[in-house]
Amino acid sequence: MTVTDESRLSQATALLRSLGICTAAALLSAGMLYSLFFLARLSFLWGLYPAPFAAAAVAALLLAAFGAAASMMVVRGRTRDATDTTGKFDSVPSPNHAGRAAGWPQSAMAVLFSAPAATVLLVFWPHWNTPALSNGFAGASATLLFATPWVIATRAVGAIGEERLPEVEALRALLWLPALVLFAEAAVLVIASLGLGNQAWAQIAIAVIILVVCAELAVRAIGARFLPPPTRDNAKAQISSVVAQALSSRSLSPVGVAIVMRSQFGMDFSRSWALHFVRSASIPIILLMVGICWFLTGITRVDLNQRGSYERFGYPVAMLTSGLHIVLPWPFGVVRHQELGDVHEVMISNTPVVAGNDHSTAEGPAPASANRLWDSEQPSDVSYLIASGTADRQSFETVSASLRVLYRVGLTDAAARDALYRETDAKGLVRALAGRVLASYFASRT
Q1: How far is CA 432 from CA 346, 398, 435, 436, 438, in A?
Q2: Scanning 69, 307, 314, 382, which has the fewest C-beta atoms within 10 Å of its C-beta?
Q3: Cα–Cα distance between 157 and 164 in angstroms, integer?
Q4: Are the C-beta atoms of residues 139 and 49 closer than 8 Å to each other?
């Protein structure tokens, strides 16, 4: 054995060791998650990390383990082919251990790993009525910490050249899948903890993507059984997935997208003059669109039952009537809308009256609010204690009044500005003024 052969053998041994570590780490991680969330069924963990998220992580780890195990099997076959001296004699056919490793064992492994991954996803399929999380930020932190080793593994595998491992891009995509799923789940957990949206749609989207990858790997591995057996030179592990490679970080870049389109669909966009024109004109067009949108903020509409106070640099300078108006763009010009002629009703009472929904009709019975006995005080009445005299004796008596005040903002420009800039609660102001007028009336006439 020459020095070159010994160097290649040592490199193959190191590669097998790395792939074995990735396979063991993925299987141990998937088993740990499955044991904690679904066998032990620790409820406090479900408050930090929902069960559908754990199922998606387990499925992604199983697919990563399949990629590493299938690649390790083919690499071991290549190593045996390189060290086997049987093929040196012309009368003996060259060994094809790599071709046999890339045959039916790949199909069996694809079904063996894809079926449990899909089963876990389907059993713990996410629902729209997801429960609230007890501490989503802690779950997101643990998820990011758990994703870090898979980012490192992805970068380490990506550094391997295609001459040593022809399946490096496909394997890198499958190893990146758990990291991508965990990163997405961490972002969704943070968003859900902040109350900015429902996490069910993200859970369903992640589960659907992993299911598609499982189906693609199984179909590719099974379909390869109907092709001629590979030779020792072109034998590869059946771990290629278009969906997984499209989700990898390199494939999401413009160069990666161009490579995928050229290799998978035969379309080369690098020679398209239209794309070159769009690339050169994109920045001016975007700046022009931003400028037009900013200019459109200076076009405002005032409805027929409104009027608008136009503020230029924060100072009101004019009162706009109904119609379209062109003013300075935001934030230099702002129009504050004010009603015109709307009549409001305020009930004067000591206690707030909660008005329910009135579903009464013209022929039906009267609503409950119409059942009033005027010899007893109603919740909507306001009571006053006034002085009175009976048989030359001073005493007090209680007067209950049911009062509703109708008001509107004045029709002049000055009244509209006062309503906009000098008061914040019109109903509270009218209620206080009406109560003061009633108190003054009873005080002056008793």
Answers
A1: 11, 20, 5, 6, 10
A2: 314
A3: 11
A4: yes
* Token representation of residue 58: 């387990």
DSSP H stretches of helix in 268-310: 273-296
Q: Quick one: CA dihedral 322, 324, 328, 330, positive or negative?
A: positive
CB 120 within 8 A of CB 173: no
Q: Which two tokens stand for residue 20?
A: 């074995």
Q: Two tokens at 326?
A: 């062109």
Query: Measured in Å, how far apart are the chain's first and last C-alpha atoms?
Result: 124
Q: At 228, phi and psi to the nearest 5? A: -60, 145
Q: pTM of the entire structure?
A: 0.57
CA pair distance 187, 179, nearest whole angstrom: 12
Structure tokens at 143: 């998820």
Q: Which residues of the chain have pLDDT under 70?
A: 1-9, 37-49, 84-96, 128-136, 197-198, 232, 249-261, 263-266, 268-270, 350-362, 366-380, 384, 389-391, 445-446
- String of b and e for 170-202 (b: at least 16 CB within 10 Å)? bbbbbbbbbbbbbbbbbebbbbbbeeeeebbeb
- Residue corresponding to tokens 């779950």: 139
Q: Which residues of 396-424 are buried (b: 16+ CB within 10 A; e: fewer)?
A: eeeeeeebebebebeeeeeebbebbeeee
Backbone angles phi, psi at 349, to 5 degrees: -150, 160
**C-alpha span between 227 and 188 (Å, rounded):** 42
| CA gap 275, 133 in Å, rounded | 46
Question: Which residues, including other chains, have CB under 8 Å from residue 288's CB and lie 6 or more apart?
Answer: none
Rounded Cα distance between 388 and 395, Å, is 5
The CA distance from 297 to 45, in Å, is 49
Question: What is the SS3 string spanning 122-183?
Answer: HHCCCCCCCCCCCCHHHHHHHHHHHHHHHHHHHHHHHCCCCCCCCCHHHHHHHHHHHHHHHH
Amino acid 390: pLDDT: 65
Q: How far apart are CA 97 and CA 242, in angstroms?
A: 27
Length of the chain equals: 446
pLDDT at position 318 is: 92
9: its two tokens: 């053998």
Confidence at residue 321, expressed as pLDDT on a 0 to 100 scale: 92
Please, which residues have CB within 8 angstroms of residue 152's CB and are 6 or more apart in sequence? Answer: none
Gyration radius from the chain CA atoms: 38
